[in-house]
Fold each of these.
Amino acid sequence: MLKERNYTEGKILNSLVSLAFPIIMANVLQTMYQLIDTFWLGRLGANAVASVSLSFPILFLVLSLGGGLTLGGTVIVSQYKGARNQDQVNYSSSQTVAVIFIISILLAVFGYYMAAPLMKLVGAGPEILEDSVNYFQVSSWGFIFLFMFFVYQSLMRGIGKVITPMFIVLATVLLNLILDPLFIFGFGPIPGYGVAGAAIASVITQGLSAIAGMIILFSGKQGIKIHFSQMKFDFPWIRRLFFVGIPSSLDQSTRAGGMTVMVMLVTSFSSDIVAAYGVGARILSLVIVPALGFSIATTSLIGQNIGAGKIVRAERVGNLSSIIALCGLSAVGLILFVFAKPITTFFIPNDPHVIRDGTVFIKTMAPSFGLLGVQQVMNGVFNGAGLTKVSMLISVFSLWIVRFPVAFILSHKTPLSYEGIWWAFPVSNLLAAALAFAYYKNGSWKKEALIEKGSGFES
């Protein structure tokens, strides 16, 4: 059996890379679900794709709640791992699984019975209402499995075990590639369920990944062993989980809401501008994947080192992570700046107006990608220290206090017109990164460790 890696010792760069790479790959693979669904549903027609697309904003908001609370588990477990308190690692993991399981059931029931009103709320017309409702209802039952895998993945990240979750995601994506056409179109004794078939395929793969994750956690073979006997609700502990997790949930929800409002602003211009924005948004969504990967890896390393009482080493982690994010994503931004026109042409090949506007958008935004990376890594530092509220406030500042107002003013009150929207991205990235880095260098986060000796947290 291989010796377990100690992330509170050794070379920080090696620790960062070994954690970040599998997380980035897992995030990339998870985005494949949507691409696979879109590919096969596109064979049914535009209405099929539209009926599923309408569900994404609501699904994202629901998943933000689960993702935020599971991050709370990551932070708590990582700090106990650093403190070498295995009993509390197991206890905290058991409590997290129990809480997330109950929440997932409540959200599944809510989603199933509220599917029709929610789809009408987001604008489903009569031609796609039935399909969108069916898709959302089936997907709602998948919340239980999806959240159980999320909690497994988050707990494993908290103790630095990121390889197995990546392989589980890879296996489910490959299986989904087979099950999607099977349940959408039918084969042999299996009838075709149309749009709902894509949701059925996803629920099956989510169920298998959740079962695999729970088996690993109950077996105790990968650093965490959960017990049914430790799942009786400990309300003081649960308050801690919500204290850390809810700000992260609001952070993610804020991002979803901010992007939605930006889309509403863009749609006040022509369809060409909307298309150009869509290309830029896709590029941004790809760039954010490595940034989030390093952010999550930083959270785990910071948490473990704070738990071990190694504050100086934790700060060194933050310094190195920010340098890597700044240099790495600036290099990516430079490449995208140079190849902005071919990239836009790849997505929209036959429209010179969209190609021109999309190229300008990418060239305007790309030089600030390094700053975006710094902001995300700083959020990872604050999360690892248990200061998820700080990360949330920085996101609110970036999206609601800077990006949207700047985009509105520049696009409606200056000669820049719609290009003012493009400039809002580098401006918000710069100011958010500066604010986050200033707070980081202030050093107060180092005094706010979530777990301290004599805090009374251990129960």
Note: The two ends are 32 Å apart (CA to CA).
Amino acid sequence: MPGKRVVTVGIVQMICVDDRKLNFEKAEQLISECAKQGAKLVCLQELSYDLYFCQEEDYDKFNLAESMDGSIHDFSSEMARKYNLVLLAGIFERRAPGVFHNSFLIFENDGTRVGVYRKAHIPDDPSYYEKFFFTPGDDPFPVFETSAGRVGVCICWDQWYPEASRLTAMKGAEMIFYPTAIGWLAEDKTDFGASQKSAWQTMMRSHSIANGIYVLAPNRCGTESKIEFWGSSFISDPYGNILQEANVESDEVIVQELDLSLIESARTHWPFFRDRRIDLYGDLTKRWREDIEQPSGSQNPIVPESTGFPRR
């Protein structure tokens, strides 16, 4: 087995306000705190420097979008250079007229941009009207070589799809980051809140286990309009153990040493990649397996009442 290969990483959980300049200032404070604790890579939450604006279909919100020569790109590049760390930061990206993405930028520690990931799975749910704003990304789950290791990024709704984490791991990622904006609606919280949060965490821990990989999930916190974001940012190891978890309601950074050599150890002892039956999986590229007989009565199903599940 290889010797230890340790990297220190940080994730940032923060409350945003309706003032990008103030959000920049707070983000720098939190990035600086990660750097002071030795982080060589830091990841921010989804749509890192703005309020979560998708709670209503409002054409004026398109004015928040920026191209790659805007303030978000330049500020993030400067933070990576100033604090000598790899930085992952979210942006509402204006790619072309009428083409907008929910994207994440990856910067090397000298401030150069390594690449961009554009969210592939776009939700449409009460107070999460992302299909109104975002075009799905079309790059099949890239992995970025950085000075801190091989990094994959999936954004929020991507977290519910095991195909995304599998493909990211298969391309050589050592860490998958899931920057997120997820929380409770008041009408759901009492009956479904605990189950929603548990499902969110369980799903990503399962990606750690199934792929033998580190998963890091920075989530936003605070209440914005109808959504109470539940924070609880966390890091899980290749066995699915939670190494650290943040609080529910306030700004916090998590800084953690990761031994990347544990990935090979986990995959050797739990050889899920070895035992995959790739000869049987061709139908995964189909929407549904039409050759399977459907249950009686499935042509006219009764639509159940909402369970409040999932949100995002």
Note: The mean pLDDT is 95.
